[in-house]
Specification:
This protein has 122 residues and is of the alpha/beta class. It folds into two domains: 1-73, no CATH class; 74-112, no CATH class. It contains three helices and eleven strands, in the order H-E-E-E-E-E-E-E-E-E-H-H-E-E. It has a three-stranded parallel β-sheet with strand order 1-4-7, with no helix packed on it. A three-stranded parallel β-sheet has the order 2-5-8, with no helix packed on it.
Length: 122
């Protein structure tokens, strides 16, 4: 990773809020679990669960296993998924593919030129 990209990532990570709820060593089986809202799951195990992410807080998984679980996206996270699906369906596949490249670490968002809002994927 180029030093400027590593520095950008470090700044990005330093700006993330720290999860406030630490859940450690728990096993969830067949449960419905909202896995955000400031939670850090450490050395946990989720088996046959319904996991719901709303985008209402930072989430962290550390040394945690997820087996045969179903994910659902609600609230702000659900709105983001709907937006991406709509953009893809309307033909803006390049933008959606750019987001996927960002997720895979192959691209990064940059700040747009002065006076504009939003992010640019490079």
């Amino acid at each position: 990773m180029p030093p400027e990209k590593a520095e950008f990532r470090l700044k990005e990570l330093l700006m993330l809020p720290i999860p406030v709820n630490r859940i450690e060593g728990q096993t969830f089986v067949g449960a419905n679990v909202q896995v955000d809202a400031g939670c850090a799951y450490i050395k946990c195990k989720f088996v046959n669960c319904n996991l719901v992410f709303t985008g209402n807080g930072v989430i962290q998984f550390e040394a945690t296993t997820i087996e045969n679980c179903r994910w659902a996206f609600a609230g702000a996270a659900g709105n983001t998924i709907s937006f991406l699906k709509n953009m893809y369906a309307q033909g803006d596949r390049q933008m959606v593919e750019g987001v996927l490249r960002e997720i895979r670490g192959e691209a990064h968002f940059s700040v747009p030129p002065s006076g504009e809002t939003g992010s640019v994927i490079q």
